[in-house]
Amino acid sequence: MLSYTEKIREIAGRLLQSGAVEMVIGFRAGTVPMMNEPHFAKTPADVQKLVWDSHCGINLANYLTDRKEKIGVLAKGCDSRNIVTHIIENKIKREQLVIIGVPCKGMVDKRKIAMKAETEITEVIEAETTITAKGHGFSKTFEKKDVLQHNCSLCIHRNPVIHDEMVAPPVVEQQGVDRYADVRSIAAMTPEQRWKYFEDLLAPCIRCYACRNACPLCYCPTCFVDESRPQWVGKSLDPSDVRTFHFLRAYHCAGRCTDCGACERACPVGINMRTFTKKLEQDCLDLFGWEVGLDPEVRPPLDVYRPQDPNDFIK
Amino acid sequence: MKMITINKSEWADGLQKAAQAYRLFGPVKEKEFHSFKRLQDGVLPDLACLNTRLSPKHLIYPQSEVMFDYTLDESRADHHILKEAARDDSPQAVVGIRPCDAKAFVLVRMNFDTPEYQDPYWIRAYEATTLVGLGCAAPCSSCFCTTAGCGPYHEEGLDVLLADAGNHYLAKVLTEKGAKFVAAAGWKTAAEPQAADRTIAALKQASESKITSFVQTDNLRSTETTDLHNAAFWEEVSFSCINCGTCTFSCPTCWCFDIQDENRGKAGVRMKNWDSCMYPLFTLHGTGHNPRGTKLHRVRQRFMHKLKYFVDKYDRGIHCVGCGRCVRLCPVNIDIRRVCNMMNNFAASGAACAIE
Hints:
The structure holds two protein chains of two kinds.
Chain A: H1 4-18, E1 23-29, E2 36-41, H2 44-47, E3 71-75, H3 77-88, E4 97-101, H4 110-116, E5 121-126, E6 130-135, E7 138-143, H5 150-153, E8 165-166, H6 181-187, H7 191-202, H8 210-214, H9 239-252, H10 262-266, H11 274-288
Parallel strand pairs in A: 1-3, 3-4, 4-8
Antiparallel strand pairs in A: 1-2, 5-6, 6-7
Helix pairs in contact in A: 9-11
Chain B: E1 2-7, H1 8-18, E2 23-30, E3 33-38, E4 64-71, E5 83-84, E6 92-97, H2 99-112, H3 120-127, E7 129-134, E8 160-164, E9 168-173, H4 176-185, H5 193-208, H6 225-229, H7 233-238, H8 246-250, E10 257-264, E11 267-274, H9 295-314, H10 325-329, H11 336-344, H12 346-349
Parallel strand pairs in B: 2-6, 6-7, 7-8
Antiparallel strand pairs in B: 1-9, 2-3, 4-5, 4-11, 8-9, 10-11
Helix pairs in contact in B: 1-4
């Protein structure tokens, strides 16, 4: 994926110069190891800052919401599926976009790498299939496939599903992935075990809402937790309010979540709130045969009634 | 100023003794990262910790704190009367706090303890707290304390400064509170002051030389507020921001809060919760108007408050101690060091070309 940078700059420069778009949304190199920052390029100088590597996990569809300009946007598989969802949900118009597809081999999980390092990581060097983390007096090389974000290791849509340009030929999709092993292991717990599991999972939450705000689906003008007249949810760290936030947010994402991992990646205290959305994703697959964001012409199952919808719950 | 030698073999024993007079808190590792927790039954603070994920500000200023309780039950004589909630202001000590986090309390105090206004909750907790800091021998690459009015062996705000001198700690007792803590722990081997000072100075110098990241702040005060406020770079700075509260909640110096009443049946509490200038609700008026209606407004406010309004109002430097938490934790890599330097260089570079 390292070779993508040059091609991205070439495409971005061309689109801006021809006036096809007013800005190109991509990434610029971060100021700390294993982080890049979402960046918009409007000038040739901005274009030269665009980069691509295994630290571009932030979902750029989040930066398109309600924008009015003509925009070129870099899109991995997951971003492209969220762009499709945005188009369906009228958050951006297809004709405003030039989608620059980025075939993705997965983004690395900086926490996984940090936990395997002996001390602070001060430099990370990436090669095609490996990544080397260096710090004071240590250097460790990892196979990228061993340190991917969990959602990336389960991804079966690495290639953009919609695009106007491609920065490289498509990558081979992962086959035979068991996407729901974690859902099954939680489902196998007794109700008491499961409740304990969720309690422990959410115990570190500080209500910073990084998960919600990193998510391209969370664009409500006023989120239910921010409603003040009347107020729906308490503001403290009371566990019932923390749970209400996480559970309701997950349900708002049912049939819409692409498992891009933005929420988990953004969390400053390491909560895997994908545990909730994965279950809903599996339900949508089992009940409706639904995979999110593959076609802008098809409305999601919770959006429409179809005669063949399962209705066993009606007694 | 007293200087004590604490042999490492006396460390655990001393803390155990101190625990009889103090509620002890210190950095403890749980799963992935360290946080400041109550040290229960002989658990020792993990002093090898680089720094805690979140700051220890909650030990004096909890994220959520009940101030009053009340009843709405009209059959009771005291209905609708706010009564002060029970709280524990018994002595507590934070062992292993970093100098940056201790200095942060000094900055926060400027807001909560002024001649005009005193926040009794913050002040009572602060007065009950003894800060036993450990000089920072291994600063992170994202630490910029030395140019943020602080440093790895900075003493301001601490009651005791510990320096790790191999097989023993040197304890510089800085305040009366510190002297009481050291006495409670039973550490009394006096160190030769000049030699101890030299050792600490050497450790300090070694640590400072490892700090590789800096901010420039010399022009902030003289730059016109409205010019900075109207600078073109805010669009670029705020673009990637997702308006979460990670920076403000992890920050040891952010002090904003919101007051809420919560009822359950007829019983209620009035509480104080951390708030964040990143949140749209933060400035929402009763009319429905929001003077900081966009993320650009909110991002600008955060940086202007820390790096300009505070500087102008108090003339005590920036509202930041350089702990680097927001730099490390921001989900989209907005870096206060970069923004601070942009703001500082703004006047010099001229309004038109202020970006980097």
